[in-house]
């Protein structure tokens, strides 16, 4: 073998190794300050470092939540604006990871804060939070065409509020919307109603793909926020923002049956109760939950593989203020936190075997980060 051929083989091998370590990280944000919108960074899964200089910056107003298509060729971002200006944007993702704007449509509500795609990728379900009690929040259904462009909303639902908390529950506030693992049911968590509303999905009905079935009642004043299904679709987990709790459910055919409800803080002051995001590890063995407010913590729970019940194994500071979202990197060796109000992304080391969070690897300055998504 010639020296030139050996050098080419070595260079090729090194390129493959570096490629396997590098991942595109998308960051959504709020743009009232210096942030311009959506940022694309390079993350090294060997070192746990985000390269400080973004690969790309897309100007977009308040793209607070990002949704990727299953094939990772499309990105959807809610534009969390009020005053009748709530919108949703669509982007194409090229093979090199670069983003190109496709179109933008009204979300048919104020402050859209979350979205998800139907199981068949034909519709984008949008949670309009609606800060003002009138008209309040709503669930909106937007078709997606074959090119990835969003179409005008074909269906909206507005729920009745519980009225328990006179400051936060005099109107509906849909905070998230997700589908069951088989896509047959859609679940909208409404903080203002103290319910998770359940809908049957029928993609063959283009004008009315959703039909309401019996909702799930939660404790008065608890404020449901985000719902997550496990990889087998047998259990689900829900954060209750206002009571700072996490709920474990059994799941069967559109029915959520409560198994367990655990507190995220022992503090009684309302300022320490602001449950936020939750995510499972890729192997389903650990659940991570954020609590914002004055607590600013991440809690780690071990998941019983048979019952789905939770056992707390760690409580860790996020080393910042208001961890709105977080994500685990593709290797499971790191957890990244979007600390919205302290304007940083914090990278923590993670032990994939024990699930425990370790030392802080990096603190990257980023104005008002709100969501983190790995593309590859």
Automatic annotation (TrEMBL):
<dbReference type="InterPro" id="IPR019405">
    <property type="entry name" value="Lactonase_7-beta_prop"/>
</dbReference>
<keyword id="KW-0732">Signal</keyword>
<dbReference type="GO" id="GO:0017057">
    <property type="term" value="F:6-phosphogluconolactonase activity"/>
</dbReference>
<dbReference type="InterPro" id="IPR011048">
    <property type="entry name" value="Haem_d1_sf"/>
</dbReference>
<dbReference type="GO" id="GO:0006006">
    <property type="term" value="P:glucose metabolic process"/>
</dbReference>
<protein>
    <submittedName>
        <fullName>Lactonase family protein</fullName>
    </submittedName>
</protein>
<comment type="similarity">
    <text>Belongs to the cycloisomerase 2 family.</text>
</comment>
<dbReference type="InterPro" id="IPR015943">
    <property type="entry name" value="WD40/YVTN_repeat-like_dom_sf"/>
</dbReference>
<dbReference type="Pfam" id="PF10282">
    <property type="entry name" value="Lactonase"/>
</dbReference>
<keyword id="KW-0313">Glucose metabolism</keyword>
<feature type="signal peptide">
    <location>
        <begin position="1"/>
        <end position="22"/>
    </location>
</feature>
<keyword id="KW-0119">Carbohydrate metabolism</keyword>
<dbReference type="InterPro" id="IPR050282">
    <property type="entry name" value="Cycloisomerase_2"/>
</dbReference>
<dbReference type="GO" id="GO:0005829">
    <property type="term" value="C:cytosol"/>
</dbReference>
């Amino acid at each position: 073998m010639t020296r030139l051929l050996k050098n080419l083989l070595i260079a090729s091998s090194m390129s493959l190794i570096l490629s396997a370590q590098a991942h595109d990280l998308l960051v959504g944000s709020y743009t009232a300050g210096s942030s311009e919108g959506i940022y694309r960074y390079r993350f090294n899964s060997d070192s746990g470092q985000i390269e400080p200089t973004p690969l790309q910056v897309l100007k977009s107003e308040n793209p607070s939540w990002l949704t990727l298509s299953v094939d990772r060729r499309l990105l959807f971002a809610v534009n969390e604006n009020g005053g009748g200006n709530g919108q949703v944007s669509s982007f194409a993702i090229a093979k090199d990871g670069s983003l190109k704007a496709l179109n933008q449509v009204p979300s048919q509500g104020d402050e859209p804060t979350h979205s998800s795609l139907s199981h068949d990728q034909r519709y984008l379900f949008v949670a309009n939070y609606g800060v003002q009690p009138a008209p309040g929040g709503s669930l909106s259904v937007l078709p997606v065409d074959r090119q990835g462009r969003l179409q005008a909303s074909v269906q909206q639902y507005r729920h009745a509020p519980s009225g328990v908390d006179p400051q936060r529950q005099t109107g509906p506030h849909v905070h998230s919307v997700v589908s069951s693992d088989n896509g047959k049911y859609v679940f909208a968590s409404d903080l203002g109603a103290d319910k998770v509303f359940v809908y049957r999905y029928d993609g063959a009905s283009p004008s009315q793909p959703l039909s309401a079935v019996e909702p799930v009642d939660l404790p008065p004043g608890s404020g449901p926020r985000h719902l997550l299904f496990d990889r087998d679709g047998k259990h689900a987990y829900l954060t209750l923002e206002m009571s700072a709790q996490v709920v474990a459910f059994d799941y069967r055919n559109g029915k959520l049956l409560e198994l367990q409800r655990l507190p995220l803080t022992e503090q009684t002051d309302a300022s320490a109760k602001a449950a936020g995001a939750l995510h499972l590890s890729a192997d389903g063995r650990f659940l991570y939950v954020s609590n914002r407010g004055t607590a600013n913590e991440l809690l780690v729970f071990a998941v019983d593989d048979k019952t789905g019940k939770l056992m707390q194994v760690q409580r860790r500071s996020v080393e910042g203020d208001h961890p709105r979202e977080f994500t685990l990197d593709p290797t499971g060796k790191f957890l990244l936190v979007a600390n919205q109000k302290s304007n940083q992304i914090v990278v923590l080391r993670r032990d994939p075997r024990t699930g425990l969070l370790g030392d802080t690897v990096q603190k990257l300055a980023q104005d008002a980060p709100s969501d983190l998504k790995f593309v590859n």
